[in-house]
Amino acid sequence: MAKINGNEIKPGNVIEHQGSVWRAVKTNSVKPGKGGAFNQVELRNLINGSKLNERFRSSETVEKIRLEQKDYQYLYDAGEAHAFMDQETFEQIEIQKDFIGEQEAFLQSEMVVVIEFYEDKPIGISLPDQVILTIEETEPVVKGQTAANSFKPATCENGIRVMVPPFVGQGERIVVQTEDSTYLRRAD
Q1: This prediction's pTM
Q2: CA–CA distance, 66 with 6 (Å, rounded to integer)
Q3: Pfam families from the xrefs (predicted)?
Q4: How is the beta sheet containing 161-164 ordered, strand by strand?
Q5: DSSP class of 178
């Protein structure tokens, strides 16, 4: 672990604060007219998911934590959990569905994900930035709806709703960004 000044905290940093492990979600450097500058940081607890807004002055120091990251292959749905296999040791672990959250819909057989560990306990999961999905249902093209910025709703094989351009039809494969469920392009 390394100590860093409060004004050096950046989004994505994992720190130890108030006896727990937190990830910086947003940071904002504030330089008021009176008084010293500070860093306004929105933190999310990696153990229980709670949020906290905290001010850190440049004179304060916090412990920056390095998480162990390992590649795991998604295997199958195990009821209330999902099973993953370590790519190096072939050990299997199960992670609760509510821990994965909304990203669960993007899990695909044999997909490689990155699981973050703190003291041998999983505290984070990162899916690939993009996945390829097949469109199961979409509205037909409306004549005259060819404006460059017009989109129509489509439902993908995993149940996710995505806004797609009018030329994309049912049964086509598309590339979707997992972070915000947005259409990127047609799949090759």
Answers
A1: 0.69
A2: 17
A3: EFP, EFP_N, Elong-fact-P_C
A4: 161-164, 152-156, 130-138, 173-177, 182-186
A5: T
